Each structure stands twice: as structure tokens, then as C-alpha cells.
Amino acid sequence: MTRAFEDKARHLVLVLGDQLNAETAAFQDFDKEADAVLMLEVAKEASYIPQHKIRLALFFSGMRHFCQAIRDKGYTVHYVPLEDANNRGSFAEEIGRWCHKTRPDKLIVTKPGDHRVEAAIVKAERSLDCKLEIRADRHFIGTLEDFDEFADARKTLILETFYRRMRRRHDILMDGDKPVGGEWNFDKDNRESFGADGPGDIKAPRSFQTDDTTNEVIEMVEEHFSDSPGRLDAFDYPVARSQARAALRDFIEHRLPNFGTYQDAMVTDQPYLYHSRLSCVLNLHLLDPREAIDAAIAAYEAGDAPINAVEGFVRQILGWREFVRGVYWREMPDYADLNALDADLPMPAFMWTGETEMNCVKQSVGQLIDHAYAHHIQRLMVLGLFALLLGVRPYDVHRWHMSMYADAIDWVSLPNVLGMSQYADGGLVGSKPYAASGNYINKMSDYCADCRYNPKNATGEEACPFTTLYWDFLSRNRQRLRGNRRMGLQFNNLDRKDDSERRAIRNRADSLKSDLTADTYL
């Protein structure tokens, strides 16, 4: 039986929307008789940027399900829904209100996944009559101290070096001191596209029916955030721990075996292909990364999945996910302001609506509208590539990413966007800009077959905007990037174009920039 709301708490444990796990460090030494949990739905967090309706529903539904789960275990939970008439709408004000009501000796929170949120909580402490304790996030396999130790010993941060270190340190996919399968990285075996016949039938990720709690959240989101991007009629995400584990089992059985080979491929009207759609439940802490890694390795050891698929999946979690988190907390808050290529254009409005003649963008944004999801190649080599080539302000790209993706948390979005996608950090995360023409998209997808533009052409009415902007990107950034040896071939190809062709490309690029950014959303 829970205590009355006004009862004094020894510890008040603040649980944020991306910390839905009762095994977090904040719950260490939790006393059900003396302590209480505080969970807040605050308007400021839901509206500081326009957010996809699915993203809002996912967070709120996940929070409400978690609240009920721990209440069922006897925890006292003070939960403030968005519609509560007493809800003051911000973390700082609500934390202050509840600390005044419960008079805790200590406010405890697991380290947030957003520097801005952590700063708001720290600022709120100054007006509280209790101590604030921020505890390390044990959800991750490595610690921030481990990452700093890695980074301090090197002049440059290289993912592959970090990934191998993590494999050795945690004995994952290791055979003694050698990598399982004889190679550290099977990326060269993970770049196949589908032939002319397409991928055939692929079992879609398991769909989860909405219950009364989720339906109430959907109704609330539609009422309070009617102008937000996206739609909710197809909401089917896992929102509870049991559903997250079911989603993992479904991926391991039905899509992992072919995930590696085709993880870079893109197909019209097929948002998921062999991808897992597990990033949301991982980022909300409904699924532990160790569970996901162990399940994939078990499939390999049972002969149910090949090494290129399993290693590729493990690399995304153990390597990339841990790497970008380390970069984020090591470099913030200054990291958010980086703009190494001096990109200065706004994000076009069609990146929220999909209303464009570029079929690859239309397809990818259409997926976002319907599912708040696009896999990593669509993110990096279609939507991110377009913003990079156009020259959109990097932080605007990040804000758009946070707006449109269900799995977006600041710690993972910012290094992926500013570093990997937009090269705004000048090479801290990625050793070169991921710049490519429309020919890459044509190779890895069937999008170009039904597009009015020709990916081979850089000038003329049929010229693919990606291809035009690719050559323009190389021209305008030549001085900034001339020392990057990995781009030598690209600049050599640029040099083969004569002055008249380069002028024609520049003129068309200037026209595209003006036309494509004429309408903006933010």
C-alpha cells in the first residue's frame, strides 16, 4: 500500500522518460517504506521543438506503463500527467513543487541523456532544501570514465579502435585474444542491395496492439499536439518491458540472419526490411543492450545466424552506440555549436512533409510520417546526405532529427547528426564527410527508377539534385577539406570537369538552394 502524497520521503527518485528500468542506479538502496518515485510529463519537454506524434505517444505511454509496473511492486510513485491542472509544465518547477510536498532528504536521478535536462535539474537544486545526487547510468556497457581513458590516450578518436577495445575488455565475440570468425569487422560483407526482383517477403517487426493506457495517451496527444508532425493511426511500438523482450526475440528469429548482408539496402514502401526497430526500446531503457548482444551471439552459436549479421548488429550496439555517448558527454556543451563547414541554410519544409519530387527523400520522409522511423542508411545516406550537400545549419538538422525520429535522444542524436552525418565537428566522429552523388542511392535502392531526376546528371532539367549538390559541395569545401587524404579521389574527379561544366553546376546548385529552402517549418 502506497503512502499518502504528503508523507515525507527519505529519498525522492526522479525517473525520466528515457530511464524506464527499475534496475537503474537511482533505485539502488531504494526502500519501499521510506522512499518515493517522481515521474513527470511536462509541457516544456514535449514542445521545446515540434515532436512527432508517435515520439510523444511512445514516451508518455512507456512512462505510464512503467509507473503502473512499479506501483504493482509496491513502490510509491508520484506521477504527474500532462493534463494535471496543477502541472507547472517544466522540470524545474515540478521538481520544486514535489520536493516541497514530500520534503526529501535527497533527490536522486540517474544521469539524464540530455545535457540541457541535466542542467535544468542542477539549476533547480539551488532552490531546493535537499541534496541532489546524480548517479551514473548503468544501462551502458562501458562507463564515461572508461571512454575518457580511451580518448585521453589518443590524438584522434577512431570507432574501430574503440570497438576492438570494447570487444576485448568485455569478452564479446572473442575466441581467446582473437575475434570470432577471424575478422574484427565484417562490414565489407554487409553492403548488398536487392536485385531486380526485390527482397521478396520479409516478416515485418512484431506489431503491438494498443491497450487502454496507450489509447488514452494517443487521445491526449491528438488533443494537445494536433499541429505536431506525423500521424498516430498506425502506432504499434512496444511500450513495456515484456513487449521489448518480445520484439528482440522476433528480430533474432525472423530478421537477424539476413540483417548483415542487406543492412545498407533500401526498397520502396518497405521501411524495415531486415532491421530490428529495437533502438526505441534500447534508448528508453526498456531493453538492456547486454540482452540484445547476448541474444544475437546465442543465435550465432546455435547456427541460426551468420557471423556477418551478428557482428554487424553487435558493432552497432557495443561499438557505435557506446562511442557516440562517450563523445557526447566528453564534448558537451560546446559540441552543439560546432559548424566546421560553415553551413548556413535552413532545413526545407518538405523534410517534415515529404512533399518533394526527389523520390528518395519522399520515400524516406514518408516513412517518418507514418512510423517515426528510418533505418541508418536512409538517415545517413539519403536525408542526412541531402542536408549535408545542401548546406543546412548542423544544429537545425539535429533539431529536425529530434523532431521526427521516435528513438531520438540528445546523447545519440547530436553526435550522429553533427559528427557522422554533417561533419560539423571537423572529423572528431567521422574521418571524412559522407558525401556522395545520387549514384550511391541508385546503387543501394530502387528509388531512382520512379524518380523524375537522373542520378547520372549534374546539370539540365533532369539533373538529380543530389548529384548537382555533390559536385557543388566538393567545390565550395575544397579549401576546408583539401588536407583530407580520404577525399583525394573525389577531388581528382572534380578536377576532371572543365570550367564551363563547373560553372553550370554552380549555377544550378545556387538555383536549387534558393528553391529548396524557400519554405521552412521551424
Description:
The chain has a five-stranded parallel beta sheet with strand order 3-2-1-4-5, with helices on both faces. The chain is mostly helical. The protein starts with 10 loop residues before the first strand and ends in a 6-residue tail after the last helix. Helices cover 48% and strands 5% of the residues. The chain is globular and about 80 Å long. Helix 8 packs parallel to helix 11 (289-301). The chain has helices spanning 43-47, 53-72, 91-102, 115-125, 144-152, 159-170, 212-224, 241-254, 256-262, 279-283, 289-301, 307-331, 350-353, 359-371, 376-390, 394-404, 410-421, 438-444, 465-476, 478-481, 488-495, 499-516, and strands at 11-14, 36-40, 77-80, 106-110, 131-135, 174-175, 178-179.
Question: How would you summarize the topology of this molecule?
Answer:
Layout: E1 11-14, E2 36-40, H1 43-47, H2 53-72, E3 77-80, H3 91-102, E4 106-110, H4 115-125, E5 131-135, H5 144-152, H6 159-170, E6 174-175, E7 178-179, H7 212-224, H8 241-254, H9 256-262, H10 279-283, H11 289-301, H12 307-331, H13 350-353, H14 359-371, H15 376-390, H16 394-404, H17 410-421, H18 438-444, H19 465-476, H20 478-481, H21 488-495, H22 499-516
Parallel strand pairs: 1-2, 1-4, 2-3, 4-5
Antiparallel strand pairs: 6-7
Helix pairs in contact: 2-7, 3-4, 6-12, 8-11, 9-12, 11-12, 12-17, 14-15, 15-19, 16-17, 19-22
Could you give a short description of this structure?
The chain has helices at residues 43-47, 53-72, 91-102, 115-125, 144-152, 159-170, 212-224, 241-254, 256-262, 279-283, 289-301, 307-331, 350-353, 359-371, 376-390, 394-404, 410-421, 438-444, 465-476, 478-481, 488-495, 499-516; strands spanning 11-14, 36-40, 77-80, 106-110, 131-135, 174-175, 178-179.
